[in-house]
């Protein structure tokens, strides 16, 4: 099977990130960020030290993004501003302690919205990590999602770690529904060392049916047509 490339979009071609770069605040101790487009997670970035984050901050919104970020930026509705509102009347803020409590309640509501709604699938999905490269005392890992549930946001990514397992850099890239659907029939062949015969056996199907699934997913160009035709001919004659 030959290599395959997927489409990605530079930040400058996605409406909004160039302006957002000047608006986003950098908080003390910040070591990363999550970028949302139309309230949908588009990118996650983590570095080990706040100074690294400060230096790289201007480049994050000009990185490469997947199809969802590009589509949502063009067709998504404007998102509401994150503003804190304090009710007047009974129970309103009268002291500095009241103001501190109201601000804390607002922060907790934002965290609940972020963890429970806006990014619920990112930490709740089981990813497979494979070491792709080692240089001196650092390892480069690549992560793949399970490619299973339809409608669930899934990401691919890269992680650089030291020998103690500490994350030095993490980058996530959100996949579109079409990319997830195309990636699903590739996951099992990868587990079978790209041997299509063993893959068909593991799936409990025939070689011909596996080829049909790969082609219906738009991945027919990855197949060695000569070997596939020979195998199908042998199966018919046998």
Helices, by number, come to: 9
Mean pLDDT: 77
The span between the termini is 25 Å
Question: Helix fraction?
Answer: 40-55%
In spatial order, strands of the major sheet run: 2-3-8-7-6-5
Characterize the biggest β-sheet: 6 strands, antiparallel
| Rg on CA atoms, Å | 23 Å
Instruction: Give the ordered list of helices and strands.
Output: EHEEHEHHHEEEEHHHH
Number of domains: 3
Strand content: 15-25%
Shape: elongated
Q: How many distinct beta strands?
A: 8
Low-pLDDT runs of 5+ residues are none
Summing up helix and strand content along with how strands pair, one would put the structural category as alpha+beta
Polypeptide structure, described:
- This protein has three domains: about 10-80 and about 120-175, no CATH class; about 80-120, no CATH class; about 190-235, no CATH class.
- The chain has a six-stranded antiparallel beta sheet with strand order 2-3-8-7-6-5. A two-stranded antiparallel ribbon has the order 1-4.
- It has helices spanning about 15-25, 50-60, 65-75, 95-120, 120-125, 175-190, 195-205, 205-215, 225-235, and strands spanning about 10, 30-35, 40-45, 65, 130-135, 140-145, 155-160, 165-175.
- The two termini are about 25 Å apart.
- It is built from nine helices and eight strands.
- The chain has about 240 residues and is of the alpha+beta class.
Quick structural gist:
By secondary structure, the protein is α+β, with helices and mostly antiparallel strands.
List the helices and strands and how they pair.
Layout: E1 9-10, H1 17-23, E2 32-37, E3 40-46, H2 50-60, E4 64-65, H3 67-75, H4 96-118, H5 121-124, E5 128-135, E6 138-144, E7 155-162, E8 167-174, H6 177-191, H7 196-203, H8 207-216, H9 225-237
Antiparallel strand pairs: 1-4, 2-3, 3-8, 5-6, 6-7, 7-8
Helix pairs in contact: 7-8
């Amino acid at each position: 099977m030959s290599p395959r490339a997927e489409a990605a979009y530079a930040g400058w071609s996605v409406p909004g990130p160039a302006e957002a770069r000047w608006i986003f605040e950098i908080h003390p101790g910040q070591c990363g960020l999550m970028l949302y487009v139309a309230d949908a997670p588009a990118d996650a970035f983590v570095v080990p030290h706040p100074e690294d984050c400060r230096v790289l901050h201007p480049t994050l919104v000009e990185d490469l993004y997947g199809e969802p970020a590009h589509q949502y930026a063009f067709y998504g509705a404007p998102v509401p501003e994150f503003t804190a509102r304090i009710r007047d009347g009974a129970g309103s803020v009268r002291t500095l302690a009241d103001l501190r409590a109201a601000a804390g309640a607002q922060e907790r509501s934002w965290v609940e919205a972020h963890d429970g709604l806006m990014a619920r699938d990112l930490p709740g999905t089981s990813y497979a990590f494979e070491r792709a490269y080692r240089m001196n005392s650092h390892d480069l890992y690549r992560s793949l999602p399970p490619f299973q549930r339809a409608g669930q946001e899934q990401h691919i990514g890269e992680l650089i770690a030291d020998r103690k397992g500490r994350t030095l850099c993490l980058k996530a890239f959100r996949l579109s529904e079409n990319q997830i659907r195309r990636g699903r029939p590739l996951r099992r062949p990868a587990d079978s060392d790209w041997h299509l015969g063993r893959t068909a056996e593991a799936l409990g199907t025939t070689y011909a049916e596996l080829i049909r699934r790969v082609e219906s997913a738009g991945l027919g160009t990855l197949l060695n047509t000569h070997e596939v035709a020979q195998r199908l001919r042998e199966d018919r004659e046998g």
